[in-house]
Specification:
Keywords: Cytoplasmic vesicle, Endoplasmic reticulum, ER-Golgi transport, Membrane, mRNA transport, Nuclear pore complex, Nucleus, Protein transport, Repeat, Translocation, Transport, WD repeat. Belongs to the WD repeat SEC13 family. By secondary structure, the chain is mainly beta. It is built from two helices and 25 strands.
């Protein structure tokens, strides 16, 4: 029997990329089509490379504009065009647009009417510089494309800012006081209603009207707590609807799983307490948590990971969870048929 695509993906050897960054690299993200790779570093730059046959090609383009280490980059959905956001210790978020050809996307020029506020390198220009935070911006995440061009930014000043691009070319900003002693991570819940694969995405009324997309995100901070926020249409502001506790130290990352229409929602959190929790929610029921058991070489003497867990990321199908640990390895966990998560592979840099 031929190996499955998942098995092939797990067995492929890592392919190194020479980025020419002059300091530590903090994040690397492929765009929607896997044709461009963005990296960011403590050298205060963002670099963008073309990807051909799974390998980075050429010297890439260098985007300069930050005055401190750049912690994270995030690609917008291609329907908005080739748009990249970056977040930095300098307290700024910069949104970049590639005006050149060969971007590998077919999206419309959403931001064309806004114009550029500064030059990048090559075809990249700066279309927005968001500087309303008073401390490091640690995490950024684009909302599901169904919600429009919306970006959430989590900062050490304790706030999450939500930037929304309006049709008139302006940006609206909502500030959410999320975690008083600092916010480290933010992630959007999929806009698709849980269970839509089984029931169809309808509101269930007599007319069969289509339900509104979910407008909800999770934030995590130095208070060891995950908070889930929802946009209240009545109050026209973001309100806290749920709070999840279970970690005993700073939470470094939080991420929702893609929703493929099944009735269960998944959320993963990584912490300085050296644990990863996978939270599940069936329909409108409560969230329940499962602690990953690293096992093997990943485990320390106390059954936790050997070092701080910095980042988590679900696969597109949601059944594989990648865990990035301070020991320099990435561990891949897969959900079993009984609901448990097993470590199926580990990758060393």
């Amino acid at each position: 029997m031929a190996p499955s695509s998942n098995a092939q993906a797990l067995s492929e050897a890592p392919r190194p990329v020479e980025t020419m960054h002059e300091d530590m690299i903090h994040d690397a993200q492929l765009d929607y089509y896997g044709r461009k790779l963005a990296t960011c570093s403590s050298d205060r730059t963002v670099k963008v490379f073309d990807v051909v046959d799974g390998n980075a090609s050429g010297q890439g383009e260098t985007l300069r504009g930050h005055e401190g280490p750049v912690w994270q980059v995030a690609w917008a959905h291609p329907k908005f065009g080739p748009i990249l956001a970056s977040a930095s210790y300098d307290g700024k978020v910069i949104i970049w647009k590639d005006n050149g050809s060969g971007s590998g996307t077919t999206g419309t020029n959403t931001y064309g009417s806004y114009g550029s506020t500064g030059a990048g390198s090559g075809g990249w220009t700066k279309i927005k510089e968001h500087g309303m935070h008073s401390a490091s911006v640690n995490s950024i995440a684009w909302a599901p494309h169904e919600l429009g061009s919306v970006l959430a930014c989590a900062s050490s000043d304790g706030n999450v800012s939500v930037l929304t691009f309006n049709n008139d070319g302006t940006w609206a900003v909502d500030m959410v006081a999320a975690h008083p002693i600092g916010c480290n991570a933010v992630s959007w819940q999929p806009a698709t209603q849980p269970g839509s694969l089984l029931t169809g995405q309808t509101a269930g009324d007599a007319n069969g009207a289509q339900s509104s997309p979910i407008r909800r995100f999770a934030s995590a901070g130095c208070d060891n707590v995950i908070k889930i926020w929802e946009l209240s249409q009545e109050q026209n502001r973001w309100i806290e609807v749920e709070q999840l506790t279970g970690h005993t130290d700073w939470i470094r990352d939080v991420c929702f799983s893609p929703n493929i229409g099944l009735p269960r929602s998944y959320l993963a959190s990584a912490s300085q307490d050296r644990t990863v929790l996978v939270w599940t929610k069936d329909g409108s029921g409560p969230w329940t948590k499962t602690k990953l058991s690293p096992g093997g070489t990943a485990a320390g003497d106390d059954g936790k990971f050997k070092d701080t867990v910095w980042r988590t990321s679900f696969s597109l199908s949601g059944n594989v969870l990648a865990v990035s640990c301070g020991d320099g390895k990435v561990y891949l966990f897969k959900e079993g048929i009984k609901g448990g998560w097993d470590c199926v592979s580990e990758l060393a840099a």
